[in-house]
Amino acid sequence: MRIAGIRALTLALMVPPLISRGDAPFHNLVSSENRVPSTAFAHFQPDPAEPPLPPETLRELVTVEHGTLPIILSVPHGGTLPIPQAVERQGRGLSDFQTVRDAWTAELAAACVIELERQLRGKPWLILARFDRKFLDVNRPAERAYESRSAKVVYEYYHRSVAAACQQVRRRWHCGLLLDIHGQGEYPEAICRGTLNGRTVRRLLDCHGWAALVGKHGLFGYLQRQGYKILPDCLADVKTREISNYQGGYIVATYGSHTDYGIDAIQVEIGLRLREQGRWRQTARDLATAIALYTEEFLSP
Ligand SMILES: [Zn+2]
């Protein structure tokens, strides 16, 4: 299944890279929600007679791989497929509306999974969107994520899959790490950390402190030592605020360890230079090594 997926992903290599402004932070989503006029979604008229999408179509639109490690990768914005019967979103009245694909993130995540399997001899969980963000944005609350019934079905499938992965990881290992993989073009050489300024990794901070993220053996600390530019810088005061556009969206806000799901969740916004022209292969290997070191240091029994 994964090999077939990789073959499918190679088709995307023909598409020129796009620059994404990333995801609006969750606190902005909440505040902007209050500004959305009640008529904003008047154009979305679900047809109750419309047949639901068959299971095989859902599986084509969202890749879900069950894992054997307490690691979950979510990749919501790297897809290119249309959703049958869905209209392209218009985003009327939304100040944080985005339809741009996070180019190469699907390829990068798939390569990261393979490298993690090699290094840890186990499989991470993978929930990977193959649908185009024009039709659905799963990193938004439902009322701002879709504008057609079939996209709603895919939205619920994606989130059911992430929720189930979190619950199974929690049940088996009691703790785990969810990485929500994105791309941004504003800081093309950098990787931005998004934890809602520590909220979505509360358990990790309580157990291990900031060293688990920014220390010598921390997830981002390792990457910075390998020469990656990390924002905020790992040597900065731990109270340094995360960059507002990339501090974490709906997915990490929903499943982080500040919630009942109890899984430490981090939005990872990878700069364009670290993804384009095949550079994503090296970035994937380095990210996998950082995750493997983190797993052995902080998630092993
Ligand atoms: Zn994104």
UniProtKB/TrEMBL annotation:
Presence of keyword Hydrolase: yes
Q: Which Gene3D superfamilies match?
A: Zn-dependent exopeptidases
Q: Which domain of life is it from?
A: Bacteria
One GO term in the molecular function aspect is:
hydrolase activity
Name assigned to this protein: N-formylglutamate amidohydrolase
Name the keywords, alphabetized: Hydrolase
Keyword Hydrolase present in the record's keywords: the answer is yes
